[in-house]
Write a structure and sequence with these properties.
Largest sheet: 7 strands, mixed
CATH topology of the largest domain: Rossmann fold
Shape: globular
Number of domains: 2
Distance between the termini: 19 Å
Order of helices and strands: EHEEHEHEEHEHHEHE
CATH class of the largest domain: Alpha Beta
CATH superfamily of the largest domain: Flavodoxin domain
CATH architecture of the largest domain: 3-Layer(aba) Sandwich
Strand content: 15-25%
Helix content: 25-40%
Structural class: alpha/beta
Radius of gyration: 18 Å
Amino acid sequence: MKLYEIVFSPTGGTKKVADIIADRFRWESSLIDLTDRFLDFKAFTFGEEDVCIVAVPSYGGRIPDIVAERLKEMKGNKAKAVPVTVYGNRAYDDTMLELNDVLIEAGFCPVAAIAAVAEHSIMHQFAAGRPDEEDRRELVDFTDKIKRGIQNGSLRDTPAVPGNRPYRSFSGVPMKPRSGKSCTKCGVCAEACPMGAIPTDMPMSTEHDKCITCMRCIAVCPQKNRSISKVLVAAGAQKLKKTCRERKKNQLFLG
C-alpha cells in the first residue's frame, strides 16, 4: 500500500494535522500540495491499494472552491480516502460532507473521516497552539483505528458524516491582505499564492476578485509586510467570541 498526503494548507495548520496522521501510519508516503497552482493535478492517478489522507480547511463551513476543482482533476480509481476537515474552533458545518462528495465524484472511496481543530488562520486567539499534545494523542488514536480497519478489511463503506445538501452559502471573507511600505518586491508572496491573486510584476497589490483570504501571503512574507485590517479582524473576533469560547473536540467517523 502507498500512502498519500493530499493537503491544502496555506498557513500550515491543516498540514500539522495531516502530518500527525500520516506519521502514525508509518508507511512510505508522498505529499501532494493542493496550494501549488503550478502542479498538473490531472497527472495524479491512484489505485485501489492506495490510501489518501485528504486534509482541507473549513472556510465559512465549506471547502474552498479551488480545492474542489483540483481534487476533481485527479483520478481516484477507488483508492481509499480519509477526508480530514480542519477548522478553527467555530464549526465545520457542511465542509466534511462536501469534501466526501467531491472525493466520491473524483473516484475515491472514503472509508473514514476526521474533524480536527487547528489554530484559526485569521483570528489566532481561537484554538491558539492547536493541534496541541491532547490533539496529538486523539489523532494518533484515530489513526490507529483507521489503519487497523483498512488492514483487516472492516472499513468498507463511506461513513455517515454531518452536513446538509444543498451546502450552506459562503461568499468569502470581506477582508483582504494588503501590502505595507516595506515591500521589497521579492515576489515570494506572488509565487506562493494558491490563487495567483498577487501579480508577479506588482506584488504590492492584491487582486481582490481572485483572493480567498487564505493568509498564505502573510505567512510567507519574509519582511512581515503583508497584513489585513486590524479593525476588521477585531470586529470579526467579537462576533465569534461566544461561539469559539469552549474547546471543540476532534471527531472520528468510521465507515
